Amino acid sequence: MRANGSSSRRARLTVAAGVAAAVLLAGCTGDDGGEPSPVPSASTATPETTERTEPTEPEPSSPTPEPGRVVVPEVRVNVTEVATGLPAPWGMAALADGTLLVSLRDERRLVVVDPASGAVEPVTGPGADDLRDGTVARGESGLLGVAVGPDGSAAPGEVFVYRTAADGNEVLRGTLAGRELSALTPIVQGIPAASTHDGGRLAFGPDGSLHVTTGDAQQRGAAQDAGALNGKILRVAVDGAPAPGNPDPASPVWSLGHRNVQGVAWDVTGRMLASEFGQETFDELNVVVPGGNYGWPDVEGVGGAGAGFVDPVVTWSTSDASPSGLAVTREGAYLAGLRGETLWRVPFASPDGGASADAFGAPQAVLTDRGRLRAVLVDPATPLGDDGSAVLYVLTNNTDGRGDPRDGDDRLLRVVVTPTG
């Protein structure tokens, strides 16, 4: 897919080199430029539970800052291995007891990971049976995002999951008591599904509404159709009805023109960010505004503002990112890169937010030696430091059919972020 605008402008706004390599992927449709091969089942593997602290990461090389980008002090990270043996993990959410709920895409299961001990426990009950029996795992589809209703929402502690069923993608709601999941109630159905481009991230916004990211499901034109659910970010109440304040009160659509968003998060100012896979040239970090049209399939990357589209604030070559999960701290956004095998930090250039590219500093690669990265979550049990320090949880994704698994993959990592200046 082409990107509108001049080639010189592309060169100024892309974060890293490698566009020529990305062009070799033309016509491919997966998040890495191809359909994944089947993943062998690892349901009988027993995850290791011994916590192991890794040495502090060396500062990786970062791309040359784009002209006009603010250079913000870098951060160091220290990595602790929390759990291993997770087969194709996809989403995670924090439970009230400090444990993490993790979805396993291909095995169609939920597990609970205790960050303190590394123990991994299966979720059981009628809801777990439904996920196993009613979820279709093929390519990028399967059991994807998971969210837990926050305190102050209309469903505190309730569990929400995004899965591919026989007739499309859907969002389900249930109650988790201990490790037993109740029968599930569909709240959003009829989201088109395909073997690739299924979106799948669930996240509660600051106002307590649930945001659902959907891919174009290989139907490019649907991303521009306000009446279609694919290629969108949806905003709904906990019963699945359009949330109050949506651009169209009768529609769940919050924004459109998306190819495949798999990460959404909010900063302390309430600004909403989203990470998005490009086709063959540019991956994107976007500031999402209500009713915004982000250009796909007419535009990939920048160049659409003149046509009424919203340009991304940061772009990468698709070989450098393929950004899935997204988390936000006081000082920046962190994107989990699949094909790029990198945790990217995009620092904020201003504490007051802003929706233009100059509100963001030059991106930095902060974790580069763990292979493919699928999801990243701010540890809710650790307060964000005023100096920018934070604790993140990161899921690797080397067993998803495209990676090169290492002994013990996949892993849940605890990443402590500390500013250097």
CATH class: Mainly Beta
| CATH level-two architecture | 6 Propeller
Please state the structural category.
Answer: mainly beta
CATH topology category name: Neuraminidase
Q: What pattern of helices and strands is seen along the backbone?
A: HHEEEEEEHEEEEEEEEEEEEEEEEEEEEE
InterPro entries: 6-blade_b-propeller_TolB-like, Glc/Sorbosone_DH, Quinoprot_gluc/sorb_DH_b-prop
Protein name: PQQ-dependent sugar dehydrogenase
Keywords: Signal
Give the gist of this structure:
The chain is built from three helices and 27 strands. By secondary structure, it is mostly beta strands. Strands 1-2-27-26-25 form a five-stranded antiparallel beta sheet, with no helix packed on it. The chain has a four-stranded antiparallel beta sheet with strand order 3-4-5-6.
Helix-strand layout with pairing:
Blueprint: H1 7-13, H2 19-23, E1 52-53, E2 75-83, E3 89-94, E4 100-104, E5 109-113, E6 120-122, H3 126-134, E7 143-148, E8 159-165, E9 168-174, E10 176-177, E11 180-181, E12 185-191, E13 202-204, E14 210-213, E15 232-236, E16 253-256, E17 261-266, E18 272-276, E19 282-288, E20 314-317, E21 323-328, E22 332-337, E23 343-347, E24 364-367, E25 373-378, E26 390-396, E27 412-419
Antiparallel strand pairs: 1-2, 2-27, 3-4, 4-5, 5-6, 7-8, 8-9, 9-12, 10-11, 13-14, 14-15, 15-16, 17-18, 18-19, 19-20, 21-22, 22-23, 23-24, 25-26, 26-27
Signal peptide: 1-26
Domain Glucose/Sorbosone dehydrogenase: 88-402
Region (Disordered): 27-70
